[in-house]
Amino acid sequence: EVQLVESGGGLVRPGGSLRLSCAASGFPLSSYNMHWVRQAPGKGLEWVASINSASSYKYYADSVKGRFTISRDNARNSLYLQMNTLRGEDTAVYYCAREAIDFDFWGQGTLVTVSS
Amino acid sequence: FILTQPHSVSESPGKTVTISCTRSTGSIASSYVQWYQQRPGSSPTTVIFEDDQRPSGVPDRFSGSIDSSSNSASLTISGLKTEDEADYYCQSYDISSQVFGGGTKLTVL
Which of the 8 DSSP states describes residue B49? Predict the structure, then answer.
């Protein structure tokens, strides 16, 4: 069974940092491009970042470029999102998602709250 | 580019509803459109991929299409059921980014 489980969310002060993890199981992570997508409370979905299977291509939304870094460890079946210089507008549930033709599997999400 | 959806739609059970998704720049046909359903408290799930394809397990009441003349994609749900009440998002991409529409809240009343 394919599973994606995010962790690492929590309360952080503006300007702070947080590292999210996404543990993949039930499929070879190395075969898939992966993404982070976030959803602010009561708002819609926003794509955050993507990484290809070999980590040779990484793309970011303009809203997080220069502050967030996506990475992966295929040997550990894990995806990561390092978030620095966090702002209030980064408050959201962060989902990791697997890219097939679509985003065919999503985790349950981890909540990041940026507040003083 | 931006994908624009209506904020909300409502219809009665048994009826048909169509949700639009208009692409701001570039051709709607230049990259596939997906549609996701998100129920409260749950992660999104795919109801349509590659413009008009249904994943296994999605009822054939769900259909998708694109219209180059209006540069838009559409999700049509026929024979509405109360369980279809949810938020629906269109999604497409370009070479370096993924784009979601703002989402449409479907109310079945």
Answer: B
